[in-house]
Amino acid sequence: MSDLPPAPAAQPAAAVAPSEKWNVLSIVGFVLSIIGFNVVAIVLGFIGLSQVKKTGERGRGLALAAVIIGFASIVLGIILTIVFVSALATTGAVTSY
Asked: Per its UniProt entry, which superkingdom is the organism in (predicted)?
């Protein structure tokens, strides 16, 4: 036989670390900002940010995204409304009686 050292014993499987808890309001705020409920998404985003700061949960990025997307879409809606109304006014489509 050969003079090989014995094979090492199998190591036990490492225990899976418990996953960190996600902040639910951050997730809901993000989803609502995507589907267009911007004011609610902004409020939930700010509440989610506050909770993440206090509890250490995950979801800070989602809460920030909810706030940013919510504000950006509101501003974009206002700009598009102004452009649309001014375009109608310059073409004469809106007449005063």
From this structure: Bacteria
Q: Are 60 and 46 in contact (CB under 8 A)?
A: no
pTM for this prediction: 0.72
Coil/strand/helix, residue 79: helix
Q: Which residue has the tokens 């190591």?
A: 11
Distance between CA atoms of residues 40 and 31, nearest Å: 11
What count of other Cβ atoms lies within 10 Å of the Cβ of residue 74? Answer: 14
Amino acid found at 5: P
Q: In which residue are the tokens 């267009």 written?
A: 36
**Long-range contacts (CB closer than 8 Å, 24 or more residues apart) made by 61-64:** 62/23, 62/26, 62/27, 62/29, 62/30, 63/23, 63/25, 63/26, 63/29, 63/30
- The H or E element spanning position 84 is helix 60-91
